[in-house]
Each structure stands twice: as C-alpha cells, then as structure tokens.
Amino acid sequence: MTEDQFWTLVQAPNFHESSDEISEHLKLKLNDLNDDELACFDKYFNLKMRETYTWDLWAAAFIISGCNSEYAFSEFRSWLISRGKAIFNKTIENPDNLAGYDVIPFKDEQPYPFLDEYDLLAGQIYEDRTEEELPFIPSGIDEPSGKRFKNKAKMLKEKYPALFELFWKK
Questions:
Q1: Do residues 81 and 52 make contact, with C-beta atoms less than 8 angstroms apart?
Q2: Domain ranges (residues) in the chain
Q3: pLDDT tens digits, residue range 92-127?
C-alpha cells in the first residue's frame, strides 16, 4: 500500500455526514483489504496521528470546539485525517488554514470535529479476522510537540485569527 492509497481509503466521501456514517464508509473499504494491507493502513494512520500531535493543532481544536482532553484531541486528529491529504497538509502547515474549508460538521448546533475510535477500525477488523492484535509500535512521544498554548482569548486570536473569528464563543 502506498501513502496515496492510504489517503484514498481514509478520506470521508462526504465531510458533513455523521461520525457513524463516516466510520461505516471506512469499514467497508477496509474489509476489502487483506491482512497485510490492513497492517500497512494502520501503520500509515498511526504515523499521521503522531504528525498531528502538536500543541499548535491542539490550540486550533480548543478554539473550534473547546477540546481539552487527550481523548478528545485524539478524536479530533482522527477527524482531521478523515478530511484527506490536501486539507490535512494545509492544516499541518498552519492550523488556522482549517478556517478556509467547509469541512467541520455540527452536532446539536455546535462544531463537532471528532471521530470516535476511527483510529481503531483497522485493528478491530484485523483482530476479528485473525484473533490477534496488530503489532503495536510505540510512538515514543509523551506530549505534543511544540510550545504549549495558553487558552487566553487575546493570544489565541492573535495566532489563529481566522479560526478565532469563526468559532470562538464569547
């Protein structure tokens, strides 16, 4: 599996579908893969999760949705990966770029950029088939890279003006 094949599989077909619908689309695609391809897909997914483990990206998630826990940030990063290669790369380059895309779904009239357990789908399918877990590869990362953000409105507005304008709740 190539990285381009990974992106073809992981990108949600409709960015405004529910989390469950997006997960179901990926499950259907992953079921067509053999065990080696599933393991490779999982490896790419984990690499992208590590790449997104930054304080800058967490600050963006905080502005958009009040994201304030490791678990929620993991679900945010899974959601970002599901937006596809182009949006992923532009957001990694500068998290404020995310404001330029109409890709953030809403739930109960609130921004909801989260995909629950999206990062576990390949492993679940693999385990169902083989009764074994995919090999675990530790990230060796204890906390996000970069400088921890301060959740002060003035600082967030300065660093992420577009996201702040769209999502900050006064």
A1: yes
A2: 3-138+147-167
A3: 999 999 999 999 999 899 999 999 999 999 999 999
